[in-house]
Amino acid sequence: MLKVGDKLPSGSLSEFVEIEGNGCSLGPNSFDLEKTTAGKKIAIFALPGAFTPTCSAQHVPGYVAKAAELKAAGVDEIWCVSVNDPFVMGAWGRDQKTADKVRMMADGSADFAKATGLVLDLTARGMGVRSQRYSMLVVDGVVKTLNIEAPGKFEVSGADTMLAQAQKELA
Questions:
Q1: pLDDT tens-digit profile of 14-64?
Q2: Which of 19, 114, 119, 132 has a C-alpha 20 to 30 A away from that of 45?
Q3: What structural domains and CATH numbers belong to the chain?
Q4: What residues have CB less than 8 Å from 15, skipping those under 6 apart?
């Protein structure tokens, strides 16, 4: 399982890009993790699924609300990662008004979740293999903080925790 001090696993995540530019075409684009995190400070939070109750009512809105404060603390980008396809993540981002605040990164086949060891098996509930709920601060591809939630909980991975950690780690 991924831990503080580890580099993120190799691989990619996808994002539905709304506006063509900066070398990205309109629609789903794949981003290499090593290249995309190089030289950046990124707050990453992951959750079991798009449009699910806690994720939509608390987790994403918290990061949208705290985006300016996180960036003022030194965070370059904020990523929401979920085991959904980039089309669903794009639609969820529009619904949650994440534009220019939180990048909605799709882990469609759960490859990233599996590589980190942070999987949640919700097969019995008809949702298949998903990501655990967690947050982490990543600097130049290396995990600086990692906050993993207990199953069914939302206590340590929210934006307030990440903001406090960013202010301490990036000061």
A1: 999 876 666 666 679 899 999 999 999 999 999 999 999 999 999 999 999
A2: 19
A3: 12-169 (3.40.30.10)
A4: 28, 29, 31, 86, 89, 90, 103, 104, 105, 106
Closest C-alpha among 120, 110, 121, 139 to residue 39: 139
Whether 55 is catalytic is: yes
Contact present, 60 and 96 (Cβ < 8 Å)? yes
Q: Give me the amino acid identity at 116.
A: T
Q: What angle do CA 86, 88, 93 make, to 5 degrees?
A: 90
Q: What is the DSSP letter of 9?
A: P
Do the Cβ atoms of 49 and 15 come closer than 8 Å?
Answer: no
Alpha-carbon distances, residue 86 vs 4, 42, 55, 78, 153 (angstroms): 28, 19, 17, 16, 25
Q: Considering 8, 42, 55, 138, which one is annotated as catalytic?
A: 55
| Cβ pair 33, 136 in contact under 8 A | no
